[in-house]
Amino acid sequence: MRSPDARSARLSLSDVAYTYEGRTPTRALDGVTLEVRDNEFLAVVGPVGCGKTTLLRLVAGFLSPARGAILCDGRPVRTPSRERRYVFEEDAIFPWMTVRENVEFGLLAKGADPAARESITAELIALIGLEGYASAYPKELSAGMSKMAEVARVLATDPSILLLDEPFGSLDAQTRARMQDELAVLWEKRRKTVLLVTHDVEEAIALADRVVVLSPRPGRVRAELPVDLPRPRTLEQRLSPAFSELKRAIWRELGLGRGCGA
């Protein structure tokens, strides 16, 4: 396998800045330069209000930078694209559809034939461990199961890049850890390029190949730390000295929790 540094960049941000206009303009990001490599799982952490979600929305094409360039496969990002799919922090699964219908939804929009829809939907439902819940509605699922069904719905459209905005932020600690493990297994099998923003340092280490730390607002890249830990990142891995040392290193870059406001 090639080392991460040998992989080509799927996403690149060069000197990116963004300002929220208003009575008092707020500079959310300033001079952000980073790359996300092919098939890499990159996590971005930072204090509250430092522009993590803004960065993700810029990459998605929901916002346009005030300065700088964002490229996807060498082409400027100007609008949303099916190649870059976004999983929101808020629950976005369709409550009137079953798990199967939710996962199948994107395939219908793509015009996939019935046989392909059935095969891909069944495969993804099995991958997220919801075989026994294919006919269940979201109200019949736990919060974690509902979120994984949403991830499967996004993956059904076969995007090349997955953008995750605090996907497990509303879950309790035990459920969040279990969903992180399931997402890691899903990534190992599908090997998509993933950009995750999270406030959870342990989640970033458990999932990512590399962790980018943003400064307080306006967000700038303060540090990039490789996660040189074997996969899968088991409970034993999370309790290891190497995991703990990396967690301490990230907290040091974060200034031991000094924030930047709301």
Give descriptors for this structure:
about 260 residues; alpha/beta; Rossmann fold; six-stranded mixed beta sheet; 10 strands; disordered C terminus
Task: Please explain how this structure is put together.
There is one protein chain. This protein has 262 residues and is an alpha/beta fold. Helix content is 35%, strand content 24%. It is globular and about 45 Å long. Helix 2 crosses helix 3, helix 2 runs parallel beside helix 4 and helix 3 runs antiparallel to helix 4. The chain has a domain of 161 residues: P-loop containing nucleotide triphosphate hydrolases (Rossmann fold).
Chart the SSEs and their pairings.
Blueprint: E1 9-20, E2 26-37, E3 41-45, H1 52-60, E4 67-72, E5 75-76, E6 84-87, H2 99-110, H3 114-127, H4 143-156, E7 161-165, H5 173-190, E8 193-197, H6 201-207, E9 210-214, E10 221-226, H7 235-238, H8 241-253
Helix pairs in contact: 2-3, 2-4, 3-4
